[in-house]
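Sorry, I am new here, but would you mind making up a protein's amino acid sequence and the tokens describing how it folds?
***
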Amino acid sequence: MEAPRVIEDAASLNQHVRNLTDQHESGMSDPWSVDDAPQDFIDRLVQAIVGIEISIETLTGKLKASQNQPERNRAGVRAGLDAGFRYQAHSPDSTGDPCTFLSG
């Protein structure tokens, strides 16, 4: 097994963030782009990231269906996914709801 490799090169990390963003936003009706954010924000974000490259020898999947969440939360997730909404996690609000759905 190869030892993990630390990646701190800003250009490589920036490109990785862009690739991931493009991949996850590509199916949205109005996809967000890293270029939509102010450049100083992008620069600060990239400076705060330490990339770690690891070799994966095996991968085991596990079904995670939010079974530990109240039915109200599970119903909200289903409705959001059915409507093509994006999920944005944040701190729970006064209702205890830990998520917000953004149309997209």
Remarks:
- The first strand starts at residue 5 and ends at 7.
- The beta strands are 5-7, 51-53, 86-89, 99-102.
